[in-house]
Design brief:
This protein is α+β, with helices and mostly antiparallel strands and 134 residues long. The chain has one domain (5-133): HIT-like (HIT family, subunit A). It is built from three helices and five strands, in the order αβββαββα. The structure holds guanosine-5'-monophosphate (5GP) and zinc ion. Residues 1, 4, 6-7, 46, 97 line the site of zinc ion (ZN).
Length: 134
């Protein structure tokens, strides 16, 4: 896509600090990191998010995210890792080219990624189940 910032990164039209690439994916450092070594794993082909990405490509992205997560732990001394994806504007997606965040976490870094529970939604589980599986 011509107006997509990540497609431009793939084409080399916008600079990025790449740390890995193969035929399917590119991995580079986030320009606005949430932690030291915050990386983005993206497919070279443009997909909007996980929902329109073919399974084989998605599987490869996850496989590489795991490899990168291990590297971050070993080389940067991270204590833990968040692998996250935002699919859709309401889920926080800002760049509409599929990407997975690989976020190294450090003891005491204070970052919170909680899904805060809403008590009034608790009773709906059976109802929600019926809707999903019907
Ligand atoms: P989203 O909110 O869509 O899940 O995350 C998009 C991420 O892309 C943001 O964390 C943002 O910092 C990062 N980002 C946006 N533009 C650029 C860019 O030009 N270069 C790099 N390296 N990261 C970018
Ligand atoms: Zn794109």
């Amino acid at each position: 896509m011509s107006d997509c910032v990540f497609c431009k990164i793939i084409k080399g039209e916008i600079p990025s600090t790449g740390i890995y690439e193969d035929e399917v994916v590119k991995v580079f450092l986030n320009i606005n990191p949430a932690s030291r070594g915050h990386l983005l794993v993206i497919p070279k082909e443009h997909f909007k998010n996980v929902l329109d990405c073919p399974d084989e490509i998605l599987s490869h992205i996850i496989k590489i995210s795991k490899k990168i997560a291990k590297l971050a732990k070993e080389k940067l001394g991270a204590d833990a890792i968040n692998i996250a994806n935002n699919s859709g504007k309401e889920a926080g997606q800002e760049v509409f080219h599929l990407h997975f965040h690989v976020v190294p976490r450090y003891k005491g870094d204070g970052m919170r990624l909680d899904f805060i529970s809403k008590k009034d939604l608790k009773d709906d589980l059976e109802e929600i189940k019926k809707i999903i599986i019907s």
